[in-house]
Structures are given as C-alpha cells and as structure tokens.
Amino acid sequence: MTITITAFERSPDGGRGLARDMRVRWALEEVGRPYEVRLVSFKQMKEPDHLALHPFGQIPTYEEGDLALFETGAIVFHIARHNRGLLPEDDNARARAITWMFAALNTVEPPIVEREQSRYVVGDKPWYGELLPVLEDRVRVRLDQLASRLGDAQWLDGAFSAADLIMVLVLRRLEGSGLLEEYPNLSSYVARGEARPAYKRAFASQLAVANHDRGAEDAERQ
Amino acid sequence: MTITITAFERSPDGGRGLARDMRVRWALEEVGRPYEVRLVSFKQMKEPDHLALHPFGQIPTYEEGDLALFETGAIVFHIARHNRGLLPEDDNARARAITWMFAALNTVEPPIVEREQSRYVVGDKPWYGELLPVLEDRVRVRLDQLASRLGDAQWLDGAFSAADLIMVLVLRRLEGSGLLEEYPNLSSYVARGEARPAYKRAFASQLAVANHDRGAEDAERQ
C-alpha cells in the first residue's frame, strides 16, 4: 500500500531539515519503504480537510490505506512496529528504546521548543533579554542530564533505534543557538546520526522541495 | 513478578493527584495489577541510585524483574502492551490510540507545563503579568483544537484507552487555572475519567501517602 505523508509547501527553515516531516522521512529511509509527499500550505493546514487528518493543524501526517496518523512519535513507532531495523526484537530492550522515544519528545524537546518559540511570541518585548537566559538554562538542565547518561556511548541504549532518530532531530532544533556546542558528546552523537545514509537521503529529499520552491520563486521574478 | 514504582515522598500537590505517578497507578488499577511504591525524597531523586533508574531525576520509575523504565508514556504503554484493557486489539485502532498518547504528551502537555512552571522560574519578575496571558493563549490554542476534535464524543477514539488516561491527567494539570472551565466538553471529559473506579482507587492510594505524611508532620509538631 502506498504511504503518503504531508510536509510544508514552504518550510520555514528553507530546507535545513528541521521540520518534523524529517523524522518520518528518515524512519522510512531506514527501513527502505518508498513514500509519496503531499505538500500543504500554511492556509491549507488550518482548513477542514487537513484538520480531519491532523486535529492540531500541523505536519506531518501519515496515510496508508485506511489508516491515518499524526504525531511524529506515533508515526515513527508505527513504522518501527511494522518493519525491521528501528526497534530491538528483545522485549526489554524494546521497552527501553520506547522509553527513550517518549523521553526525547516529552522531556527533552519541550524546553527546546519553548526557547525557540519564545522569540516569536514575546521576542519584541523589552524584557525578552531577561527571559531568554532563563529558558536557555532550562534547556541546559536537560542537556546536562542527557550528556551524563550518554557518556561515551554511540547510541542511547545499545544499537541505533527509533529513539536515537527522534533524539538526534530534537537536538538538531538547537542549531544556531550555540547550546549544543557546549556538549561535545551530544554534538558527536548528532553528527553520528547525520552520517547515516538513510538520514542523508531523507535530508536530500526535503531539501529538494525547498530548492524547487526557490526555483519557482526565481522564475516568478524573471 | 512484583512491580515497583517510585513516587514523591512529599508530593508538591499534597495529594491532589497531579503528580505523574498517578498515571502509572491508574493504568495498573485499570488492568488489575498490584504494585508496590517506593517513596523518594527530592534529595534522593538527584542522587546516583535514582539517576541510574531515571536519567532526568524525576518520578515515577517502573521496575519489574530485570526491566527498569522511566517516562510515564512509556510505562503506561508497557502496561497496556502486556495486559488487556488499555489499548484496542484492532491494529489500526491501536495505532490511533498510540497517536493520541503521543499527542497528549508532545502537543497538549508542553504548553500546560510551560504555563505552570513559569510561575516558579520568572513569577517574581515585574513583567510576569505580561508573560502569563501569552502562555495562557498558547494553552488555549491546543484546548480549542482538542475541544473541536472531541466534540460530543465520550473518549478520543471510540472506547476508553491509555490515551484518554494520559490526556485526562494532562488536562487535570490545569486545575485552579480556570482554563479548563472555558471548555465544557473537556471538563465533562475529565469528569468522566475521574468517575472510573480504577481512577478512584489510584487517587485514594496517592492521597493516603500525602495524609500519612501530614500525620507524621503533625506528630513531629506535638
């Protein structure tokens, strides 16, 4: 059955691989499943057709036959459950990998998103300069703990898993903040993820959308 | 095998059922599994023994034989995977329920926690009165979308599932903020969760810890 995912028609990051469809693209590349992409505009994301697929009006979504899913954690987990290579077979190791998937999304990502979004919602306030360091310290608390746990290990719990895939992309959201660079082992961990052939294919695919979009803009300007 | 979870020795909420061990207690009560509770102090939570179980120094944790887990989403999912009654058997319905578990934890909970924590980290700043309404509006965006999707339904996707268990407890964190009361269907949804016998048993268990603690404090004061 054909797998169709949605992605931004014009990604706010211009193809730096920070949009959440990257998580699903990477997972599908790891397990070697082809997929189609339907691009949606910001306007379409808030319209009834898209809201029927994604009640919170975001991307990506995942459709396969009768099944429609949203939330990258759930989509990546669904892919991992139905294909080999993203979760260990041993039951306890699998439960621990799932634990790290939730940890990436519910413990590590929220303060990172909070810091990132603060610029959009209160970045123009005179007191933003006081708030930002507080939010950055909240990110550091989690990075300190994660760096301590990871230590010199290659991946979070033995072999590469769906949890590493999500954690690497969550950490990549710090790009440009300088925060990740304070943790050499976390920087190396992200670099290990980015070096995987499946990551590179996924990255190239999302970049092609951005480049195509820029090409179209250039053509319009002629 | 005995299941042991950890919980706060002195819960900051004084037994109102808002601490995260409530999620695990409720799940275990729904499937009828007995469990033991090891209480940990704030000091112990940051010590090596506890950090070995929970790298982010929080509660609850879950131990069963050789298996040690953290993150409530993962623990509740593990319980649901090994016992009947918390996730549908049909594969697509199961994938949708898992989607809602991730949505509760990664989309609905973060702005709620952000609002809640802001008081502790910047509540003493002269500009806090300007920040709080912005954070409340971010919570409302999610509540609007959730209320639209839920409509008149009893539960998120057909029968009660682990996703409802988590979503109800995530929404309960808004207690005292007045925000939930703006959404009559979400308030009814939370009340339906709280009316379940398993919820009531879980609530009573965590309250007993708080009451015992208060009893001990009273005794100390005599």
Automatic annotation (TrEMBL), chains A, B:
CDD domains: GST_C_8 (cd03207), GST_N_GTT1_like (cd03046). One of its GO terms (molecular function) is transferase activity. The lineage of its organism: Bacteria, Pseudomonadati, Pseudomonadota, Alphaproteobacteria, Hyphomicrobiales. It comes from the Bacteria. The keyword Transferase applies. Keywords: Transferase. Gene3D superfamilies: 1.20.1050.10, Glutaredoxin. This is Glutathione S-transferase. InterPro entries: Glutathione-S-Trfase_C-like, Glutathione-S-Trfase_C_sf, Glutathione_S-Trfase, Glutathione_S-Trfase_N, Thioredoxin-like_sf. Residues 90-222 form the GST C-terminal domain. SUPFAM superfamilies: GST C-terminal domain-like, Thioredoxin-like.
